[in-house]
């Protein structure tokens, strides 16, 4: 057994971790999307929330999502160490003790749920707890290493933030909030599979059964196109249920068609050409930010 393996499974000696290392455990880039989509859910919800309570709700959702990321990094420290894109994370590098990372994640998972329940309402708090538990137990521990559908089912965890934001304002779950959930749910597979296409060697080396590794690139590309075709009409649904205006409707159609076009280009690309997949991955992020940005903007000017 190598020294690296001893560090990963026995626990690296603490003391070298910086504040930045602990922030990295929270997966800040993922947190940005979580915050943004939660704000979209709050903006789309009928009624309003005191600015202080709204800020508290966003903070709780942010910390709760980050805590799930920290526990994910603790559990996945062995595969993170062998994957090129994750090898520099704090735990594989030995800068953060795995036990400390776990404790950090658990504390930050419980605290925001309690604060959200006490300060805002317990429906939103229950949804936050469900999202965290789903990400840790269903996606990270159960699905990720067992099935190529890991990101499809497990992706539900990342779709909760707009529903939580909605519940923070209204105290309930409605069809409209479920639609916002569904948009992210169906957006996640083509977004993540685009990444997995050009990172498939990493996943194969780590033994993670991502769809390109198990079913091949061609089948992955077909399923990516299928999900973008489902997303195209689904993204217009907020207009039909009355929580979005015509600007949103037009934007959702244009973005949806462009997303489908990206998927078609990926499908037609040569097996060795990863540029279309990389472009689709980048566009998928832009897609969600613009779509929800228009939703938020409409509510601000209404």
From TrEMBL:
Listed InterPro entries: Protohaem_IX_farnesylTrfase (IPR006369), UbiA_prenyltransferase (IPR000537), UbiA_prenylTrfase_CS (IPR030470), UbiA_sf (IPR044878)
A GO term, aspect molecular function: protoheme IX farnesyltransferase activity
Enzyme class, UniProt record, top EC level: transferase
UniProt catalytic activity: heme b + (2E,6E)-farnesyl diphosphate + H2O = Fe(II)-heme o + diphosphate
Topology of this chain in the membrane: Multi-pass membrane protein
Positions of transmembrane segments: 30-49, 55-75, 96-116, 122-143, 150-169, 175-203, 224-241, 247-267, 279-297
UniProt keyword ATP-binding, yes or no: no
Protein localization: Cell membrane
EC assignment: 2.5.1.141
Pathway, per record: Porphyrin-containing compound metabolism; heme O biosynthesis; heme O from protoheme: step 1/1
Main localisation: membrane
Superkingdom to which the source organism belongs: Bacteria
Transferase keyword on record: yes
This protein's UniProt keywords: Cell membrane, Heme biosynthesis, Membrane, Transferase, Transmembrane, Transmembrane helix
UniProt-listed HAMAP family: CyoE_CtaB (MF_00154)
NCBIfam families associated with the record: cyoE_ctaB (TIGR01473), PRK04375.1-2 (NF003349)
Free-text function comment from the UniProt entry: Converts heme B (protoheme IX) to heme O by substitution of the vinyl group on carbon 2 of heme B porphyrin ring with a hydroxyethyl farnesyl side group.
Note: Carbon 2 of the heme B porphyrin ring is defined according to the Fischer nomenclature.
UniProt similarity note: Belongs to the UbiA prenyltransferase family. Protoheme IX farnesyltransferase subfamily.
Protein name: Protoheme IX farnesyltransferase
Organism: Rhodocista pekingensis
């Amino acid at each position: 057994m190598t020294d690296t393996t001893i560090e990963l499974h026995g626990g690296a000696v603490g003391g070298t971790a910086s504040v930045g290392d602990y922030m990295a455990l929270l997966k800040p880039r993922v947190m940005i999307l979580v915050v943004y989509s939660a704000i979209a859910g709050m903006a789309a919800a009928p009624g309003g929330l005191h600015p202080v309570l709204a800020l508290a709700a966003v903070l709780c959702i942010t910390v709760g999502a980050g805590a799930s990321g920290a526990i994910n990094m603790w559990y996945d420290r062995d595969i993170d160490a062998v994957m090129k894109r994750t090898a520099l994370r704090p735990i594989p590098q030995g800068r953060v003790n795995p036990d400390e990372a776990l404790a950090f994640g658990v504390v930050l998972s419980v605290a925001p749920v309690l604060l959200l329940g006490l300060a805002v309402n317990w429906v939103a708090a229950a949804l936050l707890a469900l999202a965290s538990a789903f990400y840790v137990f269903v996606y990270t521990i159960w699905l990720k290493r067992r099935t190529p559908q890991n990101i499809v089912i497990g992706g539900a965890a990342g779709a909760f933030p707009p529903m939580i934001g909605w519940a923070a304002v209204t105290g309930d779950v409605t069809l409209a909030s479920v639609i916002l959930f569904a948009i992210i749910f169906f957006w996640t597979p083509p977004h993540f599979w685009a990444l997995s296409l050009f990172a498939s060697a990493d996943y194969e080396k780590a033994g993670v059964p991502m769809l390109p590794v198990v079913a091949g690139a061609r089948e992955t590309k077909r399923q990516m196109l299928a999900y973008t075709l489902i997303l195209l009409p689904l993204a217009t649904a907020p207009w039909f249920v009355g929580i979005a205006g015509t600007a949103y409707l037009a934007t959702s159609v244009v973005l949806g068609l462009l997303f489908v076009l990206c998927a078609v280009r990926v499908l037609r690309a040569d097996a060795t050409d990863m540029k279309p997949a990389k472009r689709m991955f980048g566009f998928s992020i832009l897609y969600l930010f613009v779509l929800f940005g228009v939703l938020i903007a409409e509510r601000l000017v209404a």
